[in-house]
Amino acid sequence: MSFAYAKPVLMPSFTDEEAWAAFERRDRRWDGRVIGAVKTTGIYCKPSCPARRPKREHVEFFAEGVAAAAAGYRPCLRCRPDEVARDRGAVARAIELIEQAEEAPKLDELASAVGYAPHHFQRLFTREMGVSPAAYARGIRASRAQSNLNRDKTVTEAIYDSGYAAPSRFYADAKDRMGMTPSVWRDGGRGETIRYAMLDTPLGRMLVAATSKGICRLTFDENVSSLRLRFPNADIRPADTAMAALISGVMEAIEAPARAHELPIDVAGTAFQEAVWKELRKIPPGETRSYADIAAAIGDPKATRAVGTANGSNPVAVLVPCHRVIRSDGTLGGYAGGLDRKRKLLAAEGAHWEEQGKLGI
Residue 24 class from Cβ within 10 Å (0-12 exposed, 13-18 middle, 19+ buried)? Predict the structure, then answer.
């Protein structure tokens, strides 16, 4: 006797209210997380479907198309909801290939391996991950370089062990991502000048530090001693007149967070951290996202905890607005600067009354 095993049906990890809100705003970030099935038409769609929205009472929600089909619904021919899982599977496979390869695969090679046309897969990967396949590969190589440099390898060893074909490409990437040359970065900032100021802000004492490229540290309750620990061999100096504009911009960002602020920053992290930080900068003032929202937006819905860790690693508070990320149940979650500061920042940005009520502001 043989037995056939059916694929387990996923249980919803959202409320109907959250799902309906995603459909109302046609939120592409929820594609692949929820399916909306219309009782009057017998069709199920993904949240970003451009079709006209039915009445709320005519819609029920499922975690995946398999469950909707089992309930007697058929997929929408306009938004093709079942293709979302295939798209994300292709991106996940491409990430595996990039991370396993000694040298970064070319776009044509990646697209062929996952069964897509190159130009289409380029758009698909960028939409899911927030960066192109080439940029993601550069991030992987730079992360390997960072790890190799920390293992007391020579710069030359780090170059080739990290998958770079030539030193010139390594130094170009390092300049773009790290802000310092590799040997200087490895050696605690030796030869780099970092200027700092301690600011009295409405939210308390704040450290701002900057290289010639931009702000590299903006944190509450830290001082110059902690900066020296991070860069023990750098030339740490008080702010000069050239830094006055940055200091003024930081104060404005603290005092008026409801406005967009475009100050130059000089930070680097892992490819995952940078994808999270990039997504955080897309959140408009006065709005919030959940950790699950950010995880879905960068193409890794299961990475909610990792998103929280990346938030906590954010080196430039306010400018990379990790305070705009809350838990799915509406509670604040964590914040390196303290929950009281998080409440004040959200309130100053003019969060909607409903959101303020959930947050306890």
Answer: exposed
Cα angle for residues 90, 95, 101 (degrees, 5° grid)? 125
Query: How distant is the alpha carbon of residue 188 from its chain centre?
Result: 27
Which CATH number goes with the domain that contains 227? 3.30.160.70
Could you tell me the residue range of the domain that residue 322 belongs to? 271-359
Query: What number of other Cβ atoms are within 10 A of residue 231's Cβ?
Result: 22
* pTM of the complete model beyond 0.70: no
Q: 168 and 88, same structural domain?
A: yes
Residue ending a domain, choose from 159, 186, 213 = 186
Q: Would you say 302 and 295 are in contact if contact means Cβ atoms under 8 Å apart?
A: yes
The mean pLDDT values, 10 residues at a time, for the chain of 361 residues are 36 76 83 88 91 92 88 90 76 82 84 88 78 77 58 53 53 50 58 88 91 86 82 86 87 79 75 84 87 87 84 88 85 82 86 43 33
Q: Which of 281, 286, 283, 287 is nearest to 264 (CA)?
A: 281
Say how far residue 195 (Cα) sits from the centre of its chain.
28
d(C-alpha 74, C-alpha 71), whole Å: 9
Q: Which residues are catalytic?
A: 45, 322
SS3 label, residue 206: strand
Domains identified in the chain, total number: 4
